[in-house]
Amino acid sequence: MKPFVPQLVYIEPKALEYPLGRELKQKFEEMNIEIRETTSHNQIRGLPGDNDFQRYRVAKSTLVIGIRKTLKFDTSKPSAEYAIPLATGCMGHCHYCYLQTTLGSKPYIRSYVNLEDIFEAAEKYMNERKPEITRFEAACTSDIVGIDHLTHSLKKTIEFFGQKEFGLLRFVTKFHHVDHLLDAKHNGRTRFRFSINSRYVIKNFEPGTSSFDERIEAARKVAAAGYPLGFIVAPIYIHEDWKAGYLELFERLSESLQGMDLSNLTFELIQHRFTAPAKRVIQKNYPKSKLELDEGKRKYKWGRYGIGKYVYPNEEAADLESTIRGYIDRFFPKSEVQYFT
After folding, report:
1. Where are the beta strands (DSSP E) in the chain?
2. pLDDT value for 104
3. Class of residue 322 by CB neighbours under 10 A (exposed 0-12, middle 13-18, buried 19+)
């Protein structure tokens, strides 16, 4: 899979007050990519396309260069204490993605160039909690690796945390374009995680992302570069012969990681869930999706901001958790399962 290249770039004028903003403008000019100015991402109008379906796909390949105005970080439990906001949106087309809830009407990708402001805010959060370690999640609202070959914001953030005694960075990706990150001075303070799933889920629900084999090849590279490694199995999804499908996943993963030091390996397990707003967006933009979105087969669970989510009933969720934990115990007995949710 080729690295992402935006079809269209918008630049907020204030972004050009920052070195990274000017650098990216020059880069995209040299790449002959159409650049438009916008006073704010909220003012973007007139994306190419004859209908909403086409405009949605153009938006997913549109990059907005701007500044992060809100420097109050959201919490990011259970993966970290805080989400560090480097970007918003994703070029992937995963049918189940939770960004369908939060970005439904504005699915374009935003990259923030005021990194110094963001780092200063992160420093304050670390100082408030020290001597406790504060973990920051960089992939809450985007797949940051998917655009970092263009922006290098993530690389700068990795090196920022590499110098911090009381902070750790973590992020997850479905993309394999990691070569520029291999020489980053991370000092073991960034956990690099990859999203993995059964063949059925990747084939049917994850278009526009790197293949399983590409992700695992990238995982071997980052582990060889000294990064702590992790995998997120998400969403764990009940499909026909799902137990056999996930068993095969862990067999392939174990075979692919032969000969590597896996003593510091982590897993995070997240069952499939959806919200009512996400269901509407998914059915509109992926009308032929096989994704099961029947509220009658689910349990309603209260969510943040008053938006509840539909998860598997207790008995099915317990079966998912025990099955996947059993596979991990079997193939990766030295690893840590950090949570199931």
Report:
1. 8-11, 34-37, 62-66, 75-76, 80-83, 87-88, 109-112, 134-137, 167-173, 190-196, 229-236, 266-271, 299-301, 309-311, 336-340
2. 63
3. exposed
Question: Residues of the chain with pLDDT > 90: what percent?
Answer: 87
Q: Cα(217)–Cα(214) distance, rounded to whole angstroms?
A: 5
The token pair at 25 is 């403008």
CA–CA gap between residue 218 and residue 141 (Å, rounded) = 22
- At 40, the pLDDT band (50, 70, 90 cuts) reads confident
Q: CA separation (Å) from 112 to 9, 95, 220, 230?
A: 13, 25, 29, 26
Report the domain count for the chain: 1
Query: Which ranges of 257-308 does DSSP label H, i.e. alpha helix?
Result: 276-285
Q: What is the CATH number of the domain that holds 274?
A: 3.80.30.30
In a domain, 174, yes or no: yes
Q: What is the layout of strands, in order, in the sheet containing 34-37? A: 34-37, 8-11, 62-66, 109-112, 87-88
Q: What is the dihedral of CA 87, 88, 94, 98, to 10 degrees?
A: 130
> Given the DSSP bridges, would you call strands 109-112 and 87-88 parallel, antiparallel or unpaired?
antiparallel
CA distance 128 to 183: 31
Residue type, 227: Y
